[in-house]
Structure formats: C-alpha cells, structure tokens
Amino acid sequence: MGLLDETVSVPRRTMTIFFLIDTSGSMEGNKIGAVNDAVVNVLPMISEISDTNPDAEIKVAALEFSSGTTWLYDEPKLASDFVWQDVVAGGLTSLGQACQDLSAKLSRSGFMKSASGSFAPAIILLSDGGPTDDYQSGLRKLKDNNWFKAAIKIAIAIGDDADKDVLKDFTGSSEAVITVHNIEALKQIIRVVAVTSSQIGSKSSTAGDTTKQDQVIKDVQDATKNIDGAEGGDSTSANNVDSSQYIDDWG
Amino acid sequence: MELKPNDNVTLTIGTSAKVIKELGRGGQGIVYLVELAGQQMALKWYHNPPSDAFYKNLEHNVNAKAPSDAFIWPEYLTEKQKGSYGYIMRLRPNDYFEFGNYLLAKKSFKSFDAMLAAAMKICDGFMKLHLHGYSYQDLNDGNFFIRPTDGDVLICDNDNVMPQGEMSGIMGKARYMAPEIVAGGRPDKYSDRFSLSVILFMLFFANHPFEGAKVVACPCMTEAFEKKFYGSEALFIYDPTDKSNLPVRGVHQNVIRRWPAFPSLLKETFIEEFSADKLKNPNKRIIEQGWQKIITQVRDELVVCPHCHEETFLDLKAGSHSCINCGKDIDSTKQLKMNTRSMILTPGTKLYIDNDNVPDGEVGVFPKDNKLMIIRNLTSAAWHVDTPSGKVKVVEPNDFMPVLNGLKISFGSSIKGAPGAKGEIIA
Prior knowledge:
The structure holds two protein chains of two kinds. Chain A is of the alpha/beta class. Chain A has a single domain (12-244), classed as von Willebrand factor, type A domain (Rossmann fold), CATH 3.40.50.410. Chain A has helices at residues 2-5, 30-51, 95-105, 135-143, 146-150, 164-171, 183-201, 212-225, 243-250; strands at residues 13-22, 56-65, 69-71, 77-78, 118-119, 122-127, 152-158, 177-180, 230-231. In chain A, strands 1, 2, 3, 4, 6, 7, 8 and 9 form an eight-stranded mixed beta sheet that branches. Chain A starts with a helix and ends with a helix. The relative contact order of chain A is 0.16. Residues 235-241 of chain A have low confidence and may be disordered. Chain B is α+β, with helices and mostly antiparallel strands. Chain B has three domains: 8-89, Phosphorylase Kinase, domain 1 (2-Layer Sandwich), CATH 3.30.200; 97-291, Transferase(Phosphotransferase) domain 1 (Transferase(Phosphotransferase), domain 1, Orthogonal Bundle); 333-426, Tumour Suppressor Smad4 (Sandwich). Chain B has helices spanning 52-64, 99-103, 112-131, 179-182, 189-205, 213-216, 223-232, 253-258, 264-273, 276-280, 288-300; strands at residues 8-10, 16-25, 29-36, 39-46, 76-77, 86-89, 97-98, 134-135, 144-146, 153-155, 162-163, 220-221, 302-304, 311-313, 335-338, 341-344, 350-351, 361-366, 369-377, 383-386, 392-395, 400-402, 408-410, 422-426. In chain B, the strands form six sheets. In chain B, strands 1-2-3-4-6-5 form a six-stranded antiparallel beta sheet, covered by helices on one side. In chain B, strands 16-15-24-23-20-21 form a six-stranded antiparallel beta sheet. In chain B, strands 17-18-19-22 form a four-stranded antiparallel beta sheet, with no helix packed on it. In chain B, α3 (112-131) runs antiparallel to α5 (189-205). Chain B is globular and about 75 Å long. The N and C termini of chain B lie far apart (68 Å). The model of chain B has no long low-confidence stretch (mean pLDDT 93). β5 of chain A pairs parallel with β12 of chain B.
C-alpha cells in the first residue's frame, strides 16, 4: 500500500516546560533532594504525554539559580532525552538574574525556534525564600516579553519563608502560587503542576473563554485539596497547622 | 480520591464492582479495570466530581442505552462515594487504536478500504447520536479508536454526550470545534457536523484542514491566535478563492501527497464544507447521511489495479483512469450501475451496496478464463439476475455470476441496509 505507507506524523508545535529552581543554601538537604527526585519521576510522565499528543511535542528546559544561574542544557530537550543531573543547593537567591536569563531564552533566537511553531510555554518556579538580588528590574524585563505574557505560570512556594508576594508578582496572581509544607507534598505538587501544565499547555486550547492559565490553576487547585500539606491560592499558610507537627514534617 | 486494587465501588443498581488495576489516566479522571459480577469492565473515575447536573445526565444516558454498537457507552453509574463518582463501561479491545496514533503515523490503515470503512462508521455513529436527540460537544482526536485492519470504530468519552441544547460544560479543543463555538457559542448538532467534517478530513488526509502557510507562520500559538485561525479567520488550505493558506512542502506532506489521489467528488465536498459560506452558516452544513452518500460514491471508485494489484482511486468525473501507484491505465468501462452510483469492476475489488461496511460482493475472474470477470455473492441470501434474452438466473450465497453487459440484478432481501436494491451490469 504505497501511499498509506508513506504517511508521516502530522506537524506538531512545540510546548516547552521551564523549571526555574531555587538552589540557594536554604534549599539544602531534603528539600533539594525532593525536587531532584520529583523532577526525575515526572520526566517519563511528560514524555508519555508528548508521545501520544497529536497537537504538540513537549520539551523541557531547566534553570537553576543561586548565587549565579545555570541552564541544565543549552537547549530545550525532549523529556525522554533529558537526563536529570541532580542540582545542588548553596549560595544566594538570584531570582532577578534568573528572570533576565529566562527572558533572553524566550525568543525565536533563543529556545523558541521550533520550525513548525510553538504553543506558549509553561513556566514553573520553585522557591523557598526571597530574592537576594534586584529581582524587580529582572522581572520587569521578563514581563515585557510576549512569550512570558502568553505563558502558563505557576509558582511553588516551599515552606513559609518563601516570599509569596514575589511569587505572586511573577505568576501574575495569588491563585497561581501553591504552598507546600512537607517533603511529600512538595513531590506531589511538582508532579501535579508539571503534568497538568504539560497536558493543558500542549493541547489545542479549549473553545470558549477559559484560558489555559485559568484551567491549569483550577486543576492544580482541585488537586491540591487532596494533598496533605499543600495549599492553593490565597490562604495564609500553616495557620491551622500545629507547629510541632510542622517541624516534624521538615525533619 | 484515587482508588486502589481491591477497592469496592457501589453502583446505583445496588451491586458493587471491584477495582483490579489502573488502565490509564487523563485530565478528567482515571480508568480502572474492574470486575463486576464475574465480568471484566472499565470504570471511569473522576479526579474531582463534576456537577450534580453532570451526574444526572450520566444517569439519564445509562438508562437510555447506546445509540449504536460503535459507542462505548456508560452502562452503570456508581453511587457518589470516596469523594467522587464514576461510571462503568465495556472494555475497549486492544486491537483498536486512538485516532491520534494515526495522526502521529504510529499506526496506519491497512488499506483505503479500511479508511473508508472508518469514515462510514463515524458518520453512522453521529447520525444515530443525533437521531436520538443528543449532541456530542467534545469531539476530538481522543474520542475515536480505530482498528487498522478493517477500519472498525469505537467512540469513547460518551459522558459528555448531552441532549441537544444543553451544555456538558466540557468544551472541545479549538482545532476540532466549529468557528461559532471557538468564538464562545453553544455546541449543538450543527457544530458536531462541522467537527465531523474536520475529523473526516484528518482521517483521509492526515493534516488539519485549516493548517497551512498562514498557521505555520505563527511562531507562538496562543489562545488568541487559535481563536483567529480556527474561528474568526479560519481559511481552508485548498480554498479556491484565497490561496494564502496553502499546505507547506516539507510540513504538510500527507495532504500534499494524498489530495491528488482522491476522487474529485470528495475534494469538492471538502471545499464546499470548508467554504466561508458553510463556516458562517451552520444550518447549511452537510448532514451525516450526505457524508455517507459521498463516502459510498468514493468507495465505488476505489478499485484494485489489475496491473500492480494495489488499491487505487479512479475519478470518472475528472476523466482519470490511471493507477495512482503504477500509473498504468485501468479499464473502467465495466461497471455495476445502481441509480446514480457507478461501481467500477476490476478483479479483487469489493462491492459495498449498503453502509454497514460488510462487503456484499467481490469481483474475481472465471476459473478457466481470467479474461472473464465474475461477481461473487458474499451475502447470505440469493440474488436474481435477469438476462438480456429474458432468462432468470439465481445466484446463491458464495456462488458467482459473470460480468456481462445488460445483466440486471435484483438483490432481494440480501442487503440489509437496502432491501429490494437493483442494479445493472454495463460492460
């Protein structure tokens, strides 16, 4: 069957999922361990979503920021080709620099050069503290970037020391900031956020008025309700958690 | 809450189903293999329980039964429990593959014959669905499972099926939705019909009807651009009046290769259905029976090439008689005429009289003279043939008759979907 044998895959857009990971000193220990573990485990899930998706293929990029910033690869990779090198914590929290670096890559001359075009990226920011550099000028620059404007943006605040106002400023809404209070919740939330953003971000958008960002937030918030130690949205964290239990969680 | 193996889920009919293992998960929920009264079934369990109205609708669908055997329909509903609910359906056999796999070229149809059967079956499913007063609403590439060998189709995700005029609240993907729905309208049978045309186009040509040069040029497909390209400014790639969105070489390879191979009737129908007029006027869109007639006539022009023995389409209307594979001319003068249909007869070609995708006859050659073609009766009842000299011959099931000019066939009761059908051989 000549003609049918020559069938090639439909052209797919690319959806890049960015992990922006705070690797400052305060992340040391089981926090950074959980992040490494969670991302390694979520990569095969992203790969599967990509493989069976006729709308888009999903690529992964990761930027770690502490006293400086490092891209784990110098281009977005298919999840199946992304070999995760465990990130190590130490140093300051250069979020402003991370914003600058991200903005530079969110361009057709940077990471967004797929021949058959892209969907808007998904950007997942993880942090347990507050920026130690001039994050405002970095973020201002990033907010002018059209790819960033269109992106799905979710932040994961690890514990109560995370500066949630900064994370809210980054994502554009407090609903897009999820707070986690223990290691298990952190792992689960990384998985939920990565999988949900991949699923929604890599598909043709739904008809009607809901944006992909709204949809991701809604699905992540719904999932958060079922995860102990994770909180979505506005609620002030840890208010109703006993402090000894809280300390145990981090122990 | 997620379920675990050995969990029991109680059904509204009073019995309970036991979870065996997870089969897969999606955005909405998880599908588990379950055991119900000694039988293996599938349970779709929602991550988060949809609204009460959704539950009521499911209940209604469970009681109403499936519109046809193509639907993997909700058969039993669970009680609300463990923070959510779900429904039970039959298992999908593992020789059926998601339509997306065909688009990704992981699976391909064994033949054009199978491809046309799939198209026919999808039309039949939607016709029956609409006849029962439902609309599908969330029609996309994830809803169809197709068997590559014969094109049989199973339609899944029927929890979103709603009576006409009601909203499931679950919206389809913009790429598959009618422009008026992309713009925020309510899905109904007219928008389903548009989605059907998109699905059929993708089935035949393995590219999207609106994705050409214009869409490729868009670097970042945001929601706003999707609204434009699939909604307000949707433009068919082969629109005869505006060639700004033609398919791009190296990108839209499948449609570029296949478009010339299909009969003009099919191409003209797509040009018509994706014209600005039909995009703007939902009630002018072709109905499912209209598509079935077109597919029937396209199938009448699908033959086995006598030279290279591959399948090829002929195009009587365009005067094209050469094989798409070997390029040699094919004698298309021997035909079975039925009303407006002309089935071209070449050895090896199957004849489909009605729409059930079961061949009713097959063309072959006479055992001792391969120049004389015959038609074998593949039905389970006799055909009666009037000869030009006034004799009446009976062709029993599995027996055959010669392809000779002027033979008139009465198919009697042999064709379930077309009782009393008659045809005449032109040779």
